[in-house]
């Protein structure tokens, strides 16, 4: 290569810059000169092959010789979010539960209120002096021959026509209070005093003077203040029992009474409405006649109350409607009774209660009639008046003294 003139920017020969740029033939290069590294020939390879040098990590280059920081473990990916449609559906389902409960409550309250407007009201308050208010509540339950709501088929089976409810063979005082519930029957053949002198059967008061006169006679006989009056007709008993699907009765002997159109065997059994009514009205089979009948009347009423407590009564809307419709079809109540009073009466009809017949004796003037036992009856009457526990010896199924 020809020498270049000075000042051309090319370093002069022999200078370190020249040797660094073009190489030097000196065997002992300066200590700060760049050293040429001889390529090592790999086995089976060529000596002039370009050798790939390892690449230093950027972290090592810029860390001043410090070891590289440990690699970060990537965070796990978040789980996939549930679809909004499912959450909406779940929320919608949960939101329907309170709505269904509200509708059920409205139905349970609305059905009785609606049927209450269809019930016949009667003025049952007697005139004249009456016993004062007493603790607890006393209902007078009267079973009448009201049959104007019976179907033609039912009238044919009972062999009866339309009746307005002028006769009764069921008179029951139902007491509720702190002393417990007591159901006391007053046999229809009971003789009572009349204002004009003399005596008459207590059911004659209902036939001649209706509810007010009957309430007056019961209060005069017992001293018990009657708070509310409830009259049940034939149709009410038959249709209510049938709406429940039958009730259980347990006759203690075979009973065949053509006059009541009854023919059943001894033992507990399910019966329909017509059989239940005939069972509660029969009085020509057993020895004590009307005294045994009033015990069977309480048995049927208690059986209806037991069925009313069944949860199936409330969860089945059709059954609930039919029962309310049947129960109010042939019923009369006093004018002072409101829907809440009627509801308390319905509750009083359910559950356990003491069942008694008014303590009685054969009437001295007529052995086919009875009178209140002057020794034992006051104990039962006073227990009801005072809302206290009824003595056991005053509460018997037939009203006769325990032997």
Helices and strands in order, then pairings?
Blueprint: H1 16-22, H2 58-61, H3 84-116, E1 120-122, E2 137-144, H4 152-158, E3 168-176, E4 182-185, E5 191-193, E6 199-201, H5 202-222, E7 228-232, H6 234-244, E8 247-249, E9 255-257, E10 262-264, E11 269-271, H7 273-281, H8 290-308, H9 312-315, H10 317-327, E12 331-334, H11 339-348, E13 354-357, E14 360-363, E15 366-372, H12 377-386
Parallel strand pairs: 1-12, 2-7, 4-13
Antiparallel strand pairs: 2-3, 3-4, 5-6, 7-12, 8-11, 9-10, 14-15
Helix pairs in contact: 3-10, 6-7, 6-10, 7-8
DSSP summary, beta strand count: 15
Element string (H = helix, E = strand): HHHEEHEEEEHEHEEEEHHHHEHEEEH
Q: What is the domain tally? A: 1
The helical percent reads: 25-40%
Mean pLDDT: 80
Low-confidence segments, ≥5 residues, pLDDT <50? 41-45, 58-63
* CATH top level class name: Alpha Beta
- What is the first-to-last residue Cα distance? 156 Å
Tally the helices.
Answer: 12
**SS content category:** alpha+beta
- Could you say what the CATH topology is called? Aminopeptidase
> Can you say what the CATH homologous superfamily is?
LCP protein
Widest sheet: strand order? 1-12-7-2-3-4-13
Oligomer, anyone?
Answer: single chain
User: For the CA atoms, what is the radius of gyration?
Assistant: 51 Å
Tertiary shape: elongated
CATH architecture: 3-Layer(aba) Sandwich
Biggest sheet record: 7 strands, mixed
């Amino acid at each position: 290569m020809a020498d270049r003139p000075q000042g051309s920017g090319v370093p002069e020969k022999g200078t370190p810059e020249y040797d660094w740029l073009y190489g030097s033939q000196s065997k002992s290069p300066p200590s700060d000169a760049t050293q040429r590294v001889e390529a090592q020939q790999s086995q089976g390879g060529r000596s002039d092959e370009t050798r790939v040098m390892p690449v230093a990590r950027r972290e090592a280059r810029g860390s001043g010789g410090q070891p590289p920081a440990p690699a970060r473990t990537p965070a796990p990916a978040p789980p996939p979010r549930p679809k909004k449609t499912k959450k909406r559906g779940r929320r919608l389902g949960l939101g329907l539960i309170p709505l269904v409960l509200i509708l059920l409550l409205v139905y349970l309250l609305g059905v009785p209120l609606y049927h209450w407007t269809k019930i016949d009201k009667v003025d049952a308050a007697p005139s004249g002096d009456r016993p004062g208010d007493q603790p607890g509540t006393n209902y007078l339950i009267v079973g009448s021959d009201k049959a104007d709501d019976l179907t033609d088929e039912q009238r044919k089976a009972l062999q009866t026509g339309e009746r307005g409810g002028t006769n009764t063979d069921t008179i029951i005082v139902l007491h509720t209070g702190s002393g417990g519930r007591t159901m006391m029957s007053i046999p229809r053949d009971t003789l009572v005093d009349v204002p004009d002198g003399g005596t008459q059967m207590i059911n004659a008061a209902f036939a001649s003077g209706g509810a007010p006169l009957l309430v007056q006679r019961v209060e005069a006989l017992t001293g018990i203040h009657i708070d509310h009056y409830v009259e049940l007709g034939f149709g009410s008993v038959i249709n209510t029992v049938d709406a429940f699907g039958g009730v259980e009765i347990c006759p203690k002997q075979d009973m065949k009474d053509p006059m009541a159109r009854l023919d059943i065997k001894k033992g507990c059994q399910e019966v329909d409405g017509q059989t239940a009514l005939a069972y509660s009205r029969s009085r020509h089979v057993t020895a004590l006649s009307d005294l045994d009948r009033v015990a069977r009347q309480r048995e049927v009423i208690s059986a209806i109350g037991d069925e009313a407590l069944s949860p199936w009564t409330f969860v089945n809307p059709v059954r609930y409607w039919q029962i309310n419709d049947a129960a109010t079809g042939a019923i009369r109540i006093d004018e002072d009774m409101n829907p809440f009073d009627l509801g308390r009466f319905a509750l009083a009809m359910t559950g356990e209660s003491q069942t008694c017949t008014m303590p009685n004796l054969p009437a001295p003037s007529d052995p086919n009639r009875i009178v209140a036992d002057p020794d034992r009856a006051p104990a039962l009457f006073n227990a009801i008046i005072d809302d206290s526990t009824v003595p056991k010896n005053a509460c018997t199924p037939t009203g006769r003294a325990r032997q």
